[in-house]
Write a structure and sequence with these properties.
By secondary structure, this protein is an alpha/beta fold. Helices cover about 25% and strands about 20% of the residues. It has four helices and six strands. The chain has helices at about 5-10, 25-30, 70-80, 115-125; strands at about 15-20, 35-40, 55-60, 80-90, 100, 110-115.
Length: about 140
């Protein structure tokens, strides 16, 4: 995104590397947070250093990864995290009892897939990610 999360974590004293596929957002982030680095990379073709990051914060990002690519992308993120590092992920969830895909067509270019908790946990398990904590917003609060 344009740098809000990078600015927040930089303000907490962390050394932050932002990432976005949109050049305009990367430019905005670099202007907002000149002491942080920002990479322009698509989530479908990451080029990240191995075991480099203490944590990865993927806020409303991974649901834009094509379902068929999600396991590979999660594996690449896992490889980029240092031992004992943490990957935080937030995703909108499927309001149905099944996974759903939307967009990515000529009318709605913004692709998103929505998973049930069970299918999300299954993908994480296949790449060896361990759930440390889980929070799901109550549907009535949305």
């Amino acid at each position: 995104g344009p740098g809000r999360d990078v600015q927040y974590f930089t303000g907490l004293g962390h050394e932050v590397t932002g990432l976005d596929g949109c050049k305009e957002f990367v430019d905005m982030c670099q202007k907002m947070c000149p002491t942080s680095s920002t990479l322009q990379q698509d989530l479908h073709s990451l080029d990240l250093p191995t075991q480099h990051f203490d944590g990865i914060f993927a806020n409303a990002a991974l649901f834009h990864v094509k379902r068929s690519e999600l396991q590979r992308v999660l594996g690449e993120l896992k490889a980029a995290v240092a031992p004992n590092g943490v990957i935080f992920v937030s995703n909108p969830r499927s309001m149905q009892d099944q996974d759903m895909e939307n967009g990515g067509n000529s009318e709605d270019m913004r692709y998103g897939h929505y998973q049930t908790l069970e299918s999300w946990r299954a993908v994480c398990g296949r790449v060896g990610l361990e759930e440390l904590e889980h929070y799901m917003q109550d549907q009535d609060m949305e």
